[in-house]
Amino acid sequence: MKTRTLRTFLLGHVLAVIGPAACYSGAPGDLGELAPERALQLLAPAEGDLVAAAPTEDAPPAPPSIDRAPVSLSWPIDQDASDLAERPAPHRADSRAWWQLAGPAELAAGLPLAISEPGALLRLSPQDGAALAVGGLELVGPDGQTIPGALALTPLADPTHLADAGAAFSPGTSLFTLRPELGAGTFTLRGQTSGPVLVYVLERASATSLSLEPSSAIAVPGARVRVTAALRDGEAVLAATSITGALIAPDGAATSFTLARGQGGDYAGELDVPAPRGPLGPLYTLQVDIAGANARGLPVRRTVTNALAVGLPTARFAGTVAARPVDGGLRFALDVEVGAASRFGASAVLYGTNRRGDAQPIAVGQAARWLEPGAGELALEFDAATLAAAGMQPPYELRDLQLTDQGRMHVLHRQARALTLADTHP
Amino acid sequence: MRHGSLPLMTLAGALLLPGLAHANVGVAFVHGTGKQTNALADYWTVAFVDSVRKGLPNPANYVVINCDFEQYMWDPEAAGCLAGQLTTFINTRAITSMVVITHSNGGNVVRWILSNPTYDSRYPKIIQTIKWVDALAPSSLGTPLANAVIAGNVFEKSLGWLLGYKSEAVTMQQTSHMAHYNANWLYGTAGRPALPREFWAVVGTDVDSSPLDPDSYCGGYSLNVGLETTQNWLSACSDGFLECSSQAGAGYVWFYDTEYTAGDEPLSHSQSRRDCFGLDLFLREDV
Predict the structure, then answer these.
(1) What is the mean pLDDT of chain B?
(2) Phi then psi dihedrals of residue A274, to 5 deg
(3) CA of B32 to nearest chain A CA: how many angstroms apart?
(4) For A289-348, how does the pLDDT look when each residue is reduced to its tens digit (9 = 90+)?
(5) Which residues in chain A are closer than 8 Å to B185, comparing Cβ atoms?
(6) C-alpha angle A133/A134/A140, rounded to 5°?
(7) Model pLDDT for residues B227-243, shown as the tens digit of each residue
(8) 82-141 in B: which are within 8 Å (CB) of A?
(9) pLDDT digits (tens, 9 = 90+) for B60-99
(10) Whole-structure pTM value
(11) pLDDT digit string (tens) for A183-211?
């Protein structure tokens, strides 16, 4: 039943490890003509590449659980260059939901609910964990009519069923649909509660969505990230009556930023990335809240979140690379400057040149080891069998070169085109 | 196979596909999100595991993993624990070829190991031993449901996680977070290099929860009722927890449930880890 193509068959069979000091035997391709060792430089970074600043010594220690044994290996890939993205584009998040934490006084007085489509899903999560009785709620419709909660809201599921299903909303959470025949517009939710309630509205069928995209998915303190948000109703670009943005650290600390409308109707803001707080590794949350009206003039709110990695420049590539043939394979020793000790990893995709003269991926190489502050080295090695099976010729290239701080889970360097081994002669 | 010096050989090994002709084949069951202490009974069921392992030349060559997959995939209690239990299994039973069966977020933890073989010196031997991965409903691209569960959570510094849900695994399975991890730390998704071992996804496409339909009771009726509700957050093709696009987002699609299940029944997210509609029989044939 599994359709194993030639590609997957080949992928499954060879995952090679290269010894550190084997002798060159000159078997595949033109590698026999390579100089014993070539001193090379990484190519100049291009726009969109991620390059670490001068390494800092001031970083929390890597966790003691991190492995300290060096590991280096590679495996062949049977993919075309067009199968691999040159560099990842930042993720664009979209939302048709909004949420707000409402206090007891706010709910007693009446919380406005912007409903742009009939039949919205309403989730109420009391923060004290005590489930709300729908009989204790009431809604005031857009026409001013007061409707008991039991008539306005249709329960969706027993919360225990949701927890059983793996949807572990906080204790006391209730889910309802707002009866579709009540229409859309500004409703008011009223109720007596003993504590704050997270009010979450999902308008699944709505054509109105808010998108959020950072200019970079990875940042260090002091970096400036451009954040773009757009509220759209189908093809129509909507204006906001209010818009706020924040970067929320894993420990909850929020850094606000402002967004302004550009000529095309989208909103953009500049975020100065603050110093990391709390443990390194977990992603930060970018959040934008917006209010406005949709193309039909109905009130609409949206909240959207996206992820941003914030870390410290604990190491960087020095830029020098020693390339040499090893036992019919290739070894690229990349010099690294380390500021704070950790387990660091290098990875890259080795490309060769096929019979048509096009660059084609050959293999993935990875290497990692514990490095103390100062000068270090990470060596990517590609074995003879992999190169021979690929049947490629020079020039060889290292693409998608990455340097990662594995102990602190941060990508320090990412370069789409990193190195070219253009000729095979001394 | 080449032989390097002892340090690298010890730490990385020569990672060739296990020889299949005389292989000592084993199967590992890797659960999804949650901290399991008895996943055999609580997550998979004995009936499911026993049915699948009948396909092994030696049915005793199996292990049911029990780890804390509430943590981030790279955590010592998640991938670290998994690596430890797989290594013990491989060593104690002299396994030379291992099929790994994962469910849900278990696929991400295994994909972490496959994508980051240099992160932990135990990983290369595990990868070397893996024949392939059968990923049942893997949450490869995350799920909007995790977005919803995390939405509005606020960290109260003085009181710890007071408001909302604490699980790091749920945080990780937000769609924006998985997009980040897939682009920067994991392989096998569109535009990324292939994994060193095949990752075959079984995709669940729908949920039946009618009280009058006996099929709704396979895997637990209340779970299926819950999953029918959570489909509100998901696209038309989903197993109640994950959209089909997420399940099919890494590696290769083995099959969409209704292509092969008995009665063309869909596999909800709770049914894709149980002996529902012949799923166990496909896996039995595959190991």
Answers:
(1) 88
(2) -80, 170
(3) 10
(4) 999 999 999 999 999 999 999 999 999 999 999 999 988 899 999 999 999 999 999 999
(5) 404, 409, 411
(6) 135
(7) 888 888 899 999 999 99
(8) 104, 116-121, 123-124, 127-128, 131-132
(9) 999 999 999 999 999 999 999 999 999 999 999 999 999 9
(10) 0.92
(11) 999 999 999 999 999 999 999 999 999 99
Contact A127 B286 (CB under 8 A): no
Q: What is the value of ipTM here, to two decimals?
A: 0.92
Q: Decide the pairing of beta strands A38-41 and A185-191.
A: unpaired
């063309």: which residue's tokens?
B264
Neighboring chain B residues of A409 at a CB cutoff of 8 Å:
74, 185
Written as six digits, the tokens of A198 are 């997270």
DSSP chain B: -----HHHHHHT--EEPPPSTT--EEEEEE--SSB-S-HIIIII-HHHHHHHHTTSSSTT-EEE---BTTS-TTSIIIIIHHHHHHHHHHHHTT-SEEEEEEETTHHHHHHHHHH-TTSSTTHHHHHHHEEEEEEES--TT--HHHHHHHTT-EEETTTEEEES---HHHHHTSHHHHHHHHHHT--SBTBSPPPSS-EEEEE-------TT-GGGGTT-HHHHHHHHHHGGGS-SSB-SSSBHHHHTSBSEEEEEHHHHSGGG----TTGGGTT-TTHHHHHHHH-
Burial class (CB within 10 angstroms; exposed 0-12, middle 13-18, buried 19+) of A216: middle
Helix (H, G, I), strand (E, B) or coil at A416: strand
